UniProtKB/TrEMBL annotation:
InterPro entries: ATP_PRibTrfase_cat, ATP_PRibTrfase_CS, ATP_PRibTrfase_HisG, ATP_PRibTrfase_HisG_short. HAMAP family: HisG_Short (MF_01018). The keyword Lipid metabolism does not apply. Keywords: Amino-acid biosynthesis, ATP-binding, Cytoplasm, Glycosyltransferase, Histidine biosynthesis, Nucleotide-binding, Transferase. The gene is hisG. This is ATP phosphoribosyltransferase. Heteromultimer composed of HisG and HisZ subunits. It comes from Pollutimonas thiosulfatoxidans. Belongs to the ATP phosphoribosyltransferase family. Short subfamily. GO terms for biological process: L-histidine biosynthetic process. GO terms for cellular component: cytoplasm. The keyword Transferase applies. Catalyzes the condensation of ATP and 5-phosphoribose 1-diphosphate to form N'-(5'-phosphoribosyl)-ATP (PR-ATP). Has a crucial role in the pathway because the rate of histidine biosynthesis seems to be controlled primarily by regulation of HisG enzymatic activity.
Length: 226
């Protein structure tokens, strides 16, 4: 890494939505303000009140990639995203802190009236719609259930309603979307929260700038509790 690159601001990768919103109080606790909201701004690089930090706004599933390859020094991503990323990109990311934000559950859900207990037994086969391929496959493998995975990126709840899949594996927060579409959560796969992730090279070469922010995030997340 050149001396010039060491002088540039740190880059924090975030996604729009809940993770961005719940990260703002953590940054505020570190004395850093972000003046623009990515929901209303067209900018993908956002300055902050600190000359040593800028934000980049990327798709949630891309946050680990930007951090792993050094385009961002650190980022915030859900455990679900990190688990899927690790299936194809082993190593390269340091995960020092569970930030206790964006908490939800990764669940199996089926349409109302579907007899899940009868369908799930040793040696049975199900069609599962999900974007969490690794997590779904491993969950059902532990139960001895064969699965045909149908990878979708959105409108997951539609799949059981139109016969595309027997069940879905998706994130559930309040359960309101499932209820509105006559689906029910029948099994938890994992508890999910957002983690701070750090590029390993940045951690070594830019520790003087990074470490105070990591410590500030740790203090702020600890005050939120589990």
């Amino acid at each position: 890494m050149s001396p010039a690159s060491l002088d540039r601001p740190l880059t924090l990768a975030l996604s729009k939505g809940r993770i961005f919103d719940e990260t703002m109080p953590l940054l505020a606790a570190a004395g850093i303000q972000v003046s623009e909201n990515p929901e209303t701004s067209r900018k993908l690089i956002l300055p902050t009140s600190s000359p040593d930090l800028q934000l980049i706004i990327v798709r949630a599933s891309d946050v680990p990639t930007y951090v792993q390859y050094g385009a961002a020094d650190f980022g915030i991503a859900g455990k679900d995203v990190l688990y899927e990323h690790a299936a194809e990109h082993a190593g390269g990311l340091y995960q020092p802190i569970d930030l206790n934000i964006a908490r939800c559950r990764l669940c199996v859900a089926v349409r109302e009236g579907f007899d899940y207990e009868a369908a799930v037994h040793q040696g049975s086969r199900l069609r599962i719609a999900t974007k969490y391929v690794r997590a779904a496959r491993e969950h059902f493998a532990r139960k001895g259930v064969y699965v045909d995975i149908i990878k979708l990126y959105g409108s997951m709840e539609l799949a059981p309603l139109v016969g595309l899949a027997d069940a879905i594996v998706d994130l559930v927060s309040t359960g309101g979307t499932l209820k509105a579409n006559k689906l029910v959560a029948v099994e938890d796969v994992a508890d999910i929260s957002a983690r701070l992730i750090v590029n390993q090279a940045s951690l070594k070469t830019r520790a003087a700038k990074l470490q105070p922010l990591i410590e500030a995030f740790a203090r702020a997340s600890a005050s939120k509790g589990p």
